[in-house]
């Protein structure tokens, strides 16, 4: 059905038995309709429908004979495709296009048409032959591809903005160039980890537990004593996963440099719960450090503090509480499980 359509079919068997041609048409997987030539309502009228057509539409042969193919159309059928088809047929030309039709059970399907005029002996059009193929899956795949292109464009813009913000904030909070390079490199690597987890999932989402493991696994002793994760299964869409992943990276880096992960015997415990509210589900997670060095109040606000207090609050609409307990740092984050556009 692809390529330039044949200009017309001449109604002659040329020595080929008509019964043989009918058997071939009925055996093909392409849906075939033959209609009368008159395009004005109630025509054109269906004079023949092969078994592939009845399988595709759900109508029996006796239910379609004598009716116009228009009965397959509905509210979602693209009127522009129908107008283009009528224009071509009125000019006596073949037409190839796509539209949305309705089956007998009311479900829709995308169909590709190739409608060709049949000429009689004096060159006049006597019938129309319509070869049809369902292309629902092909159209869905094309729409999915277009969606992914738009999503990729949106994701790249957001990622570049995030990288720019990270670079600016890291530069402000770094004293020396080596310090900047180390901090900036670590943050970009963390961003890459999160995006890797997102791209591995067909739904562009990440399990919260996997996000935590990606950052904390290098510090785990394998005995579930130094790193403990406890909470229900919960999945974060991309709009939540990126800022939350960055926050977890900052907390991990801080714990490795100054907190519980900087000393032998130090422990990090992350627990979380999910609750339902009138506004939707909310995730509450607590980062709790134990048995680390004595906790001191920070002398200046670094990138991690700004990210927790501003980025999470702005991008994730989270409530963040920071407690400097004698036993270790405790961060409580409560956030909606809804990706804001």
Please give the count of helices.
Answer: 9
CATH topology of the largest domain: Heat Shock Protein 90
What is the number of E strands? Answer: 13
Described by strand count, sense and barrel closure, the largest sheet is:
6 strands, mixed
**CATH architecture heading of the largest domain:** 2-Layer Sandwich
What is the percentage of strand-forming residues? 25-35%
What is the overall shape? elongated
List keywords for this structure.
341 residues, Beta-Lactamase, Heat Shock Protein 90, six-stranded mixed β-sheet, five-stranded mixed β-sheet, 9 helices, 13 strands, disordered N terminus
How would you describe the overall organization of this protein?
The protein is an alpha+beta fold. It is built from nine helices and 13 strands. The strands form three sheets. Strands 1, 2, 3, 4, 5 and 6 form a six-stranded mixed beta sheet that branches. The protein has a five-stranded mixed beta sheet with strand order 8-10-11-13-12, with helices on one face. Strands 7-9 form a two-stranded antiparallel ribbon. A hairpin with a 5-residue loop joins strand 5 and strand 6. Helix 6 runs antiparallel to helix 7 (208-216), helix 6 (177-200) packs across helix 8 (238-257) and helix 8 runs antiparallel to helix 9 (303-315).
Topology:
Layout: E1 9-10, H1 18-27, E2 31-36, E3 46-49, H2 51-57, H3 61-64, H4 79-90, E4 95-102, E5 108-119, E6 125-134, H5 136-173, H6 177-200, E7 205-207, H7 208-216, E8 227-230, E9 235-237, H8 238-257, E10 267-277, E11 280-290, H9 303-315, E12 319-325, E13 328-336
Parallel strand pairs: 1-5, 8-10
Antiparallel strand pairs: 2-3, 2-6, 4-5, 5-6, 7-9, 10-11, 11-13, 12-13
Helix pairs in contact: 5-6, 6-7, 6-8, 7-8, 8-9
